[in-house]
Amino acid sequence: MNTLQKNLYQLLVEFDEICNKYDIKYLLAAGASLGAVRNRSFMPWDDDIDLYITRENWNKLRHILETEDILPEGRSFIYKENTPYYCNPLPRYVDTTSTNIYISQAFTAKACGQHLELFIFDPMPKGEEAKEEYLKNLHIYTELLSPYFIVNKNTSLEDWQKHYELYKKYCHRVDKEGEEKVLKELEDKLTQYNHDECDQYIMHWGIKNYIYNKEHFEDGELGKFEESEFPIGHNTEGILRAAYGDSWMYVPVYEEQVSHNGLKNDIPFSEYTNRYLGKIKREKVFKKYKKNKRNNAAVFYNRRKVDMLVAKEKVIVESRHIIKKLEGKEEYLRELLKNKEYKILNDEFKEYLKLQSLGDVLKYNIKVPISDKNLATFLFSLIEQGQYYNVNKFLNLIKSQEKVLNEEFTKIEKICDICREISIARYDKKDEKLVESLINQYDDEYSYLLDIYRAKLWIKENNAQTIDDYKSIDKFCNDALILYPFDGEIMAIQAKAKLKSGQKEEGMELYKKSVHNTRNGLIWQKVEDECGYSRMDIERELIKELNGEE
Questions:
Q1: Cβ–Cβ contacts within 10 Å for residue 518, how many?
Q2: Contact (CB, 8 A) for 410 and 416
């Protein structure tokens, strides 16, 4: 742990002690949950801790906070009901002896220390119409609540127009009836359902719709996180899959590791905030924030349209080289696929992948114009390299423009569904019988799939007891690695088989090789547990080097 992470961990320990004392239920969330499940620690780039808590448990905690003196010295609990100008639905447990100032919270000047952030979950009604109405109310509530930024910025252009029309109507009501009354009415609607009436909980946030099955919040597991154990919920892997997608177990590369921008140090944040609070008339500035928010919402659609047009022009210009490079290569690329020449294929499609994966290009469903056959070749290649989870964004793009998928894209979608089924059975449910059933169902037609090889090995490894069992696994891995010589997950299983078969030196070398051929964090931890070689420690040093740290 770095200095910031040690401070956050101390906050977590304190919060956990409070919750245990008063029988309050919560779960590790987001990066902390990923860290606990994947590697039992902070991710090297993590600079915050998020927690999940149901409305019932939050109300219980809030009552204790307001009736008893339970917080250690140098701590505060900030939430919208107890802090002026804190227009945030997420309570924060704050270390007042440190600084972590984000632009969106600088004006409030109370939640500006290093902190834990609590995401409150409310019971969600059953039925599609009721859910749609609930989401509409949630988006309007959170938009009205925050004057500092556009909350529902991730909606489609079409949905934004509907949202904005409703927002304008509610702004008119706010002007006529008062903000407090309108927000209270919406909040009552959002919190009217009870636990027994629902099957799902929804995050009270607005920026993104996180909806989880109720069972995840029932008494579940404790997970090791750094030096202790904390609650991670029931079927945590299912929570992570819902939050992060089918690739939740993979550690992102450096360029995709997300940290939060802000002023962070060990100086009490009041030393900063006191310097500017006395120089502004807060109520006057707060009114200007609200006015600016409405003005920004009014032009948000046009700004998004400009962003879309810029992205379209970018694709037109930059795709010319890509089209020229791939033109007339359909049969050549398909032959490479047949021969499993994945390195060459990856190089051929490198520029296409980079352009098609740009944020605004995907957001606005802009298709880089390569032929359907070449696109299908690329997607088959991803699947065969064990990356089915990267295919859906391309299929969704095709679906946004075509009513019916062609035969090859339909087959690709089916294979992705199969790989996902197997992944859920292995990682989320850990159900050997289900995995065996899926293998038996799909092996005849799709025996070549890397995900099926991995599933077979997973079962073999789980049931291995004798040296002969491990020798059999070693031989199976040899056959698999002929087809997929790049796969670190298979290498890690073979490394264990070699160790168990008495080939210690070969096993240790293969362990080290395996973790440099996969970014599956569960495999990294498995290797560390089995032989002591820590790929995560190497990642930490690499990140320090790339960040220019000593």
A1: 23
A2: no
For the four alpha carbons of 403, 405, 407 and 410, in that order, the dihedral sign comes to: negative
pLDDT tens digits for 401-415?
887 889 999 999 999
**Quick one: 329 exposed, middle or buried, by C-beta within 10 A (0-12, 13-18, 19+)?**
middle
Please tell me the distance from the alpha carbon of residue 384 to that of residue 94, in angstroms, as a whole number.
47
Whether 216 and 199 have beta carbons less than 8 Å apart is answered as no
Closest by CA to 246, choosing from 341, 360, 387, 97, is 387
Half-sphere exposure of 392 (CA within 13 A, CB side): 11
Residue with structure tokens 């390299």? 385
Length of the chain: 550
Between CA 242 and CA 238 the distance in angstroms is 6
Q: Alpha-carbon distance 301 to 310, whole Å?
A: 14
Token pair 């299929």 is at which residue?
Answer: 395
What is the maximum span of the chain, computed from C-alpha positions, in angstroms? 80
Cα distances from 506 to residues 477, 481, 495, 499, 503, in angstroms, run: 14, 15, 7, 8, 6
What token pair was written down for 7? 């401070």
Please name every residue paired with 50 in a beta bridge, in sequence order, or none if there are none.
29, 117
Condensed to tens digits (0 to 9), the pLDDT of residues 216-236 reads 888 778 999 999 999 999 889
In the three-class reduction of DSSP (H, G, I as helix; E, B as strand; rest coil), residue 306 is classed as: helix
DSSP classification of residue 83: S
Residue 469 token pair: 């069992």
Place of tokens 């890509």: 322
Angle, alpha carbons 417-123-195 (nearest 5°): 110
Q: How far apart are CA 374 and CA 234, in angstroms?
A: 42
> Is the separation of the CB atoms in 207 and 151 below 8 Å?
yes
Q: Distance between CA 408 and CA 71 in Å, rounded? A: 60
pTM: 0.91
The answer to whether 361 and 368 are in contact (CB under 8 A) is yes
Per DSSP, the three-state class of 484 is coil
